[in-house]
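Sat 14:20. Reprocessing the chain from the morning session after the first attempt stalled halfway. Input below, unchanged.
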Amino acid sequence: MTEPRLASHMLVAALVRQTFALGDFAAILRKGDENAGAVLLIGRIKGANPRLFERFPSLDKGLEWQEISTQTIDNEEQIPEYLERRTARDPDIWVIELDVAFDERLSGLLASTA
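Finished this time. C-alpha cells:
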C-alpha cells in the first residue's frame, strides 16, 4: 500500500517558511505541478558551494533527500545546465534554493521534510 504524499506546493512552502523563520534565505526558482511535481533543491552555505538535492524513495523511510551533485563555486555553471536538461524532460518540476548559515541547518531543513 502506498502512503499519501505531501503535495509539492505544500512541501515547497514549508521549506521556504522554515528557512525564513531561521533568518536564512529561500527562493522558488521554478514552479511545477502543484500536487505531483518533483522538487529539486539547491542548497548553499553562506552563498557558496551549491549542492543539488532531490527526494527519492527510500527502502525504509518513504522519501528522503539525496544529493545529486556536489560542486565548487568555480564550476557553478553545471547546476543550471543540469536543471535545463531536467526541466526539458519534466516540465512539472519545482526548483527551489535555500541559502543558510551553516551545513547543519541545511541538514535539519532537509530532515524535517523527508
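The longest strand covers residues 48-58.
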